[in-house]
Amino acid sequence: PSAPAAPSDADETVMLNVFEVRSVRDGSYAALDSNSVTAFRTDLELLPVTAEVFTKAFMDDIGATTVEEMLVNYSGIAGITGTLIDVAPGDRDGAGGLSLRGLSAPGLKRDGFIGLRASLRTATGGTDNFAIERAELIAGPQSLLYGGSGGGGVVNLISKRATFQRTRTEARLSVNTYGGRRLTLDQNAGDGHRAIRVALAGEQTRNLRSNLGGRFGGAY
């Protein structure tokens, strides 16, 4: 009798590695993953890096309106390098900037690429966070992953992204005793095939220093 025919390649079962797509939104301070090192979300406990992740929930609760304001007050980033000036409300930019681990910090990255220029002039620069989902601070030599970056580390901002099968609207209005006003709107609409997200911001800046302030508007 003839030998049985060898199974063809079409009959073989190929087992692929598990690829997980997460649609869960950060709703707390405890961010457990990062996509600034591997270009896709990886658990922080599996990464051989020092990273701090600041979520939108955290930025909202501390009332931060710029990324630099949050980094100076709540991370290991120092506020000024190369000059001795007081970081008071309304201070304009000069020879100063941000520093990380004693070294001058590079410009903030946006989704892994060179970010936009600061939209506001302050002592440390001002990048409004109305279109930012989270800020990830990667300390140490891992900043080399981003090309021309400082040796102290890099800050990568993650943009807000549309979510499928979710409809949500969030509006925030804040005022202060000096006449400052800020209004933001975050709208997400999506079904099983299409999704869109729009973020808007408008602000009239006023603070305890007379005659210092300005207007800001943004659309994303």
Question: How would you concisely characterize the structure shown here?
Answer:
7% of the residues lie in helices and 33% in strands.
Number of strands: 14
> What share of residues is helical?
under 10%
State the order of secondary-structure elements, H for helix, E for strand. EEEHHEEEEEEEEEEE
Strand content: 25-35%
Strand order, main sheet: write it out.
3-9-10-7-8
Q: Total number of helical segments?
A: 2
Largest beta-sheet characterization: 5 strands, mixed
* Amino- and carboxy-terminal Cα gap: 73 Å
Shape: flat
What's the gyration radius in Å? 22 Å
Detail the poorly predicted runs.
81-85
Helices and strands: which structural class?
mainly beta
| Rounded average pLDDT | 77
Explain how this protein is built.
- This protein is mainly β.
- Helices cover 7% and strands 33% of the residues.
- The strands form 4 sheets. It has a 5-stranded mixed beta sheet with strand order 3-9-10-7-8.
- Strand 1 and strand 2 form a beta hairpin.
- About 2% of the residues have low confidence.
